[in-house]
Amino acid sequence: MNTPTTLNTATTEHHDPYLAHHFDSPEQQNASAKVGMWVFLATEILMFGGLFCAYAVYRHLHPDVFEFCAGKYLNTTLGAINTLILITSSFTMAWGVRAAQLNQKKVLIACLSLTLLGAAGFLGIKAVEYRAKWVEHVWVGAWNQYNADYTGPDKVSSTPSPTAAAPASRPIDPHLLVEDANAGTANESKIKPRFAVDTALAAPPVATASAQRVDYDDLSTPDKQRVNAFFSCYFLMTGLHGIHVIVGMGVITWILRRSLRGEFNARYNTPVDLVGLYWHLVDLIWIFLFPLFYLIH
Amino acid sequence: MSVAVPNMNVRVAAGRDPSDNYLNHSRGLLSWIFTLDHKRIAIMYMVFILANYLLAGIFAMLLRIELLSPKPWMLADPEATKQLYNNMFTLHGAMMIFLFVIPAIPAIFGNFVLPLMLGAKDVAFPRLNLLSLWCYGMGGLFFVYVLFSGVYHAATGNTLPGGFGLDTGWTFYTPYSTNEASGGNVVAATTGAFIIGFSSILTGINFVASIHTLRPKAMGWFKMPLFLWSLYATSILQILATPVLAITLLLLIAEKTLHIGIFAWKLGGDPVLYQHFFWFYSHPAVYIMILPAMGVMSEVMPVFCRKHIFGYAFIACSSVGLAMLSFFVWGHHMFVSGQSALVNSIFSLLTFSVAIPSAVKVFNWTATMYKSDIRFNAALCFALGFIMVFTAGGLTGMFLGSLQTNVPLHDTYFVVAHFHYVMMGSTVFAFLAGMYYWFPKIFGKTCNDKVGCWAAVIIFVGFNLTFFPQFIMGTKGMPRRWATYPPEFQIYHIISTIGAFVMAAGLFTVAYNWVAGLLIGPPAPPNPWGGNTLEWATTSPPPHDNFAQTPTPGDPYHLADWQYVNEKQGWVKSPATSEGPQA
Description:
The structure holds two protein chains of two kinds.
Chain A: H1 9-13, H2 26-61, H3 63-73, H4 76-101, H5 105-135, H6 221-224, H7 227-260, H8 270-295
Helix pairs in contact in A: 2-3, 2-7, 2-8, 3-7, 4-5, 4-8, 5-7, 7-8
Chain B: H1 29-33, H2 38-66, H3 78-118, H4 126-155, H5 186-213, H6 226-258, H7 271-305, H8 312-325, H9 341-353, H10 355-369, H11 378-401, H12 403-409, H13 413-443, H14 449-475, H15 490-520, E1 562-565, E2 570-573
Antiparallel strand pairs in B: 1-2
């Protein structure tokens, strides 16, 4: 095939079954895959970034809602156990990558299996938590007792009716009202600045400075209509994270299968490495989610 | 590397079939659908993208025809006509942007030329590349579904509450899109845009990894062709901005289907947050549309002016500069959304700074032409059109970036004209320039250059006839997106519609020219324009694995060695100097 005039060094030197035809060397292929994976992880962070941004906005606008919901509905113990499980699984994953680089096939298989087990455990505990939300009627939309269109039993008696939900009914913080410059003049009653009416910031914070738990009755009227903001953020962020865990289990199963076949060695272990990177990102996102939802009170 | 690299003109290495190329390397439909060859993927992108361009263009023509009269007249029922109009402008915008302008240059020319310019056999991840194409096709199917269901129901006067079409505008603004009474197809359309977003992300990842790791050692960052710089900047934008659009659309879908409240006031959300998220993607997306066009310009200008590009490093850095600045100006779409005066001022200031890298490019292209040996081939005619149209579009952007003039001009035809000058005018002119430039390489055939030049003139005249009156209308207060208008605007609308027909005639001339070139065009030489970038170092069309012999890169714009020899009817490289490709 290769005549002396052909400069195609790649085909003459390598017969590696895992080397794609368009790369010159396994090192180049590995470097490409690494760059690609890191760039992909950047897109993941940006994608979750949108959700973290939404969280920040709504937490800033309705701090009491988040205190109330997190205090009443989130189980910090379960969250902490899950955090521990994920961190441990990240450790076994990292160990697995090292084992692959050192040709330790058995250690690699054990580590990947443990990681998979951790992921399953995480999802199991998450399922227990989600079930609790369902039982307590704080799911989304019509299954959330704090929403106006709630259809289940035990509707919260103080849930505002849809008519009361009109923005104009919100209380006005007297500090935000602008003094009427026309008061006492002939132009009185012509222009009445009422800027505070339409600003969501007008919701006064809960007065209690003590560390006691916020109850539903402590919430201001605007906040009572915005309880859904917490559950929207909670379910979207933990839900999207959960989807990533499921995808992670899929790819870990895939490399576990390949390592059982003995495909990885010190020379070729790129897939283990990349799955490891992905798994650490999934772990990292949870490490942010846990304090944001469960711990900050 | 002891073996000397022969002259670039020597095409055929020993042991190769000279007639073998990527087009005839394998046969059958499946060999295309499952191909991993970047060149075939580019061809399939071309077919899909041009088909979508035609569809979206038909909508544009229908819009212009409807606007001939101040009153809605297309259907017997005026209300149904308005509904139809809303559907048509939404689909025109959404399809043009998501299915044509964004992917056109990166997905077609980027895919085809990027590995060739690197002297590589393929992009870094050929499978991802194919997945990207399939994502594009799948997302496109959603839009086609929305299109036909919406138009069908609107045309039959079916305006049931809940709606069938998509009348939110291409931006899917809340509360239009969360409002149950409008746009029953919002979920389908946003799902389509979400999937196409992944196509864009995967292409971006591929290009970044390819440029980082497949670049030959002899090609340092500042030895890369400028088209690669612009693709690199574009890819960064695709990677960092598109995921935000993805999550935004996902939230919108979750809101519509699961009643999770992020943007809908009724569900506990804030509609303005949607605008922030949307423009955090969509402003950088504007540069996803224009940066590759600028890259094409930087290739075409030096080759047809027979002169080294002026200010290489400035052009390269201004691409990256534009990409970075584009992330910090999204608020200028929201000057009237209730942002504070301070935020508005900061966004306005940052918006003006975008003019600097843009002007750097325009001045450098102009300086490249100065005292050069200009050849008026079709590609250059379109490139000249680009410079003029882009300058007009960019300068009118100043009016919109300035707070005082933005408020009265907001949501008028001035805005419509401005972004058509930049997106439709500039990107399409550069797309056509690139098409004429790389057509011989892609298909191995030559188009009739004269017809191409005349088409460029017709399109240029038609384009300005269409959109210049819209600037005037806008300053006089004609709001965008209205099916009806006061009679005093009619004359402008009539001129605009005539211009649209002239432009369509020009575009069909181009289409005819390409088809004729494909069918009866003479075979193209490997280097029909005397370019020095590596894609010209292989045959036209290239073989399956791109190069018979791995080429050695030199200065991509050192054109002095290439001389046109009349006897040979082609470009011949004189003995290599120190600047040219080296042995």
